[in-house]
Amino acid sequence: MIIWDALAGPFIEFGFMRRALVGVLALALGGGPIGTLLILRRMSLMGDALSHAVLPGVALGFLVGGLSLPAMTLGGFAAGLFVALASGLIARLTPLREDASFAAFYLFSLALGVMLVSLRGSNVDLLHVLFGTILSIDDAALILIAGVATVTLLALAVLYRPLLLECFDPLFLRSLGGAGGMIHAGFLALVVLNLVAGFQALGTLMAVGLMMLPAASARFWARQVWSLAAVSIALALLAGYAGLLLSYYGALPSGPAIIVAAGVLHLISIAVGPHQSLLMRYRTRGV
Amino acid sequence: MRRLPTWLILMLAAFPATAAPIRVVASFSILADLTRAVGGDAVEVTSIVGPGGDAHVYQPTPADAGRIEAATLLVANGLGLDDWLRRLAEAAHYRGPIIIASAGIGPLLTGGAPDPHEWQDIANARVYAASIAAALEAADPDRADLYRQRAAAYDAELADLDRSVRAAIDTVPSVQRRVITSHDAFAYYGRAYGVTFLAPVGMDEESEPSAAAVAALIRQIRTAGTRALFVENMTDPRLIRHLAEEAGARIGGTLFADALSPPGEGGDTYVTMMRHNTEALVAAMREN
């Protein structure tokens, strides 16, 4: 009973804890499969780059519409999508490779975002606003995150096969020509969408953590793409739950606490996961 | 020696008091307003930290040093709030007087350090105004009479203000005079007018809040039965809205603590600021 109180009590007593947990669940549902596909497509760092690219759009949305969820979301989505598509386009039209082009654009975008942030000379510190906290998720933000998760899962159901083939044959989508390009663009749009949703809850730096860390950990627990995605979702949810408890009992900021929990789960996965973890490696050698 | 032209004589006779105003630089907006109230048109007051700015975290700029260099008098609050003014004056090679407006008022101690927000008690603001008037008289003796007259009139206005604040607070039953606020600036107000200001448990304005802090504040509101909540400048304004909703509290609006509001926003002079704060506090405490 005491353990039950300790583990469930905060969520029973406080609405904001329940809301945060629901927010994490929605983020996990969208981010888990996206993170898995990013890793399988060797685009792990792309998520990080894109999460920074979102900043100037959000800042612009804030300058125009104030603390309005639609303005900031729309701005962030537009900016992220622009950087993703422009990088892809430049990679095709010039000798610059896509990762280099991404790096260039996201650095440019990040600096532009910070500049826009400082334009707002009022007392409301935009940086604080930009580093959203999961404890302050309201109904509108929750609906947005859940909507993004829904769209992501539906879109992935449609794009599943071509995306999967691309994972194992990186030239597959290019061989499709125009259709391949559309699928790639659609996938990038999903990535940006999930980052914008995560950013509402966790801020730019942390949003990508809940997407990539569980996906990287899943590698040690599952083999098939669908099970990798499922394990990612479960690990992200577990990290969110543990992080919220950590934030509650340890008086730690919630966003970093959640990502630290995901990091600890990652270390555990590397150490003792059933597939090719350090422990398994040691055992097979011992035999 | 040639006689002065007639038109010049006429002009000098027509405008005997239009000597150039003396330049005064105050460290922040509230002091600037008090100086303006006492000095009127005879002084040209600039404030280094403008309305809405925070004097605690001010960063000097070269333009500020320039303004200080050209000043006849500097007005500082003292008690650690604006120590940077003295350093800035030295850097700008300013040789004139610096008046410490809070001099002579015994400060409250918070955690061993003196609390600099003395102006939140109107009795103290009257001392501020008198000190500033005396400094203006010394710096600009030609217009000493003017300063003395204006200071007396302003003192009467502040005395009125003090009475009206007391009357407004008195409309709230004394058990209800409790407010939770993140501002640490209201100790003097609380002492002078009998309002208890509770600091929100666990919250601080700069760092990202933890779940523990939010939970503690909700519990505090529930158990203390204090629904009047003035907590702002949080990392995320949505958080506090949200929290108030969950705890059944009422967000009391804006209190101007360390700075006046920008012009036209209800607290752009010391007098309107104190009125605004009192109205907001009374309205919120009635809900307790």
Structure write-up:
- The complex is a heterodimer of chains A (287) and B (288).
- Chain A has one domain (2-286): ABC transporter involved in vitamin B12 uptake, BtuC (Orthogonal Bundle).
- Chain A is built from 13 helices and no strands.
- Chain A has helices at residues 2-13, 15-40, 44-53, 55-65, 69-93, 98-119, 126-130, 139-168, 172-175, 178-218, 225-250, 254-272, 278-286.
- In chain A, helix 3 (44-53) runs parallel beside helix 6, helix 3 (44-53) packs across helix 10 (178-218) and helix 4 runs parallel beside helix 6 (98-119).
- Chain A is globular and about 65 Å long.
- Chain B folds into two domains: 15-166, Rossmann fold, CATH 3.40.50.1980; 172-285, Rossmann fold (3-Layer(aba) Sandwich), CATH 3.40.50.1980.
- Chain B contains ten helices and ten strands.
- Chain B has helices at residues 6-14, 29-39, 62-69, 84-91, 122-139, 144-170, 187-193, 211-224, 237-247, 270-285; strands at 22-28, 43-49, 73-76, 98-100, 109-110, 113-114, 178-181, 196-198, 228-230, 250-251.
- Chain B has a four-stranded parallel β-sheet, with helices on both faces.
- Chain A binds chain B through residues 10, 13-17, 20, 67, 122-125, 128-129, 131-133, 135-136, 138, 244, 247-257, and chain B through 52-54, 202, 207-215, 218, 233-239, 241-243, 246.
Give me the secondary-structure topology.
The complex is a heterodimer of chains A (287) and B (288).
Chain A: H1 2-13, H2 15-40, H3 44-53, H4 55-65, H5 69-93, H6 98-119, H7 126-130, H8 139-168, H9 172-175, H10 178-218, H11 225-250, H12 254-272, H13 278-286
Chain B: H1 6-14, E1 22-28, H2 29-39, E2 43-49, H3 62-69, E3 73-76, H4 84-91, E4 98-100, E5 109-110, E6 113-114, H5 122-139, H6 144-170, E7 178-181, H7 187-193, E8 196-198, H8 211-224, E9 228-230, H9 237-247, E10 250-251, H10 270-285
Parallel strand pairs in B: 1-2, 1-3, 3-4, 7-8, 7-9, 9-10
Antiparallel strand pairs in B: 5-6
Helix pairs in contact in B: 2-5, 5-6, 6-10, 8-9
